[in-house]
Specification:
Number of strands: 15
Order of helices and strands: HHEEEEEHHEEEEEEEEEE
CATH architecture: Alpha-Beta Complex
Structural class: alpha+beta
Largest sheet: 5 strands, antiparallel
Strand content: 15-25%
């Protein structure tokens, strides 16, 4: 496993990519409503990212056909934007990657569309909070499994489940780099965290069981039991103290 450690200059470049990711979320947040199509949100994001001289990281990546991923309700990740229109009561997960000056940044958020159930609100909040429970341990000299275990424990203590088939990742010059970042406890403690490591930490949390399957489009991942799922992610720089979040 070759884990890259970034210097200050490289992290500054990634910070600029992360800033565009954050600005894109702020733009889309104002567009998310009942009746808007997922393709419209994708078009808005693509135009905005390109207007700032950057490139959508996902467009064409392993032949992915869109600039952002939009996953609705039981869709976990990798949803392809299209004609589908959001409806009141939906929850929608949006994953955005930006490539600028040779470096990527990556983040995801789950939004409520209109009036959603209390249980859906709780799913979204627990998914977000488990990320922050995990990064309490994202410091130099801790081990990656410290982060992963904290995420799983928080999720399961709230009655939800953590997806096993998909994990976070290192990020930098490539969108996906070592190490893999599970959101659940593993047998191994994983690599020791080092200052300058940059990780995309991204818990995917299901309201029901953690099992998932891939649809016939060969991209969209859905819960096997049809229950809803939420996703939260930031690009995180390991330091000697509190981690820096490049996309928040």
């Amino acid at each position: 496993m070759a884990i890259n450690v970034r210097n200050k200059e490289q992290i500054e470049l990634m910070r600029r990519s992360g800033d565009i990711v954050l600005k894109t979320f702020k733009l889309l947040e104002n567009e998310i409503c009942s009746g808007v199509s997922t393709s419209s949100l994708n078009e808005t994001a693509e135009k905005f990212i390109k207007s700032l001289g950057a490139v959508p990281s996902f467009l064409g990546y392993r032949d992915f056909p869109s600039s952002i991923c939009i996953s609705v309700n039981e869709q976990v990740i990798h949803g392809i934007p299209g004609l589908r229109k959001l409806r009141n009561g939906d929850i929608v997960s949006i994953d955005i990657g930006v490539y600028l000056n040779g470096f990527h940044a990556d983040a995801a958020r789950t939004f409520a569309v209109g009036d959603v159930s209390d249980e859906d609100k709780r799913l979204i909040e627990v998914t977000k909070q488990c990320f922050f429970e995990g990064i309490k341990f994202a410091k130099a000299d801790n081990h990656l499994s410290d982060v992963s275990t904290a995420i799983q424990q928080y999720v399961e203590s709230n009655g939800f489940s953590v997806v096993r088939d998909y994990v976070g990742h290192g990020i930098g010059r490539n969108l996906h780099e070592d190490p893999a970042v599970p959101n659940y406890k593993t047998k191994s403690r994983g690599p020791k965290l080092m200052r300058g490591m940059v990780l995309a930490i991204e818990p995917m949390v299901n309201a029901g069981a953690y099992d998932v399957k891939v649809l016939d489009d060969e991209w969209t991942v859905v819960t096997s039991d049809g229950k809803k799922s939420a996703h939260y992610e930031n690009t995180v720089v390991i330091t000697d103290d509190e981690p820096e979040l490049l996309t928040l």
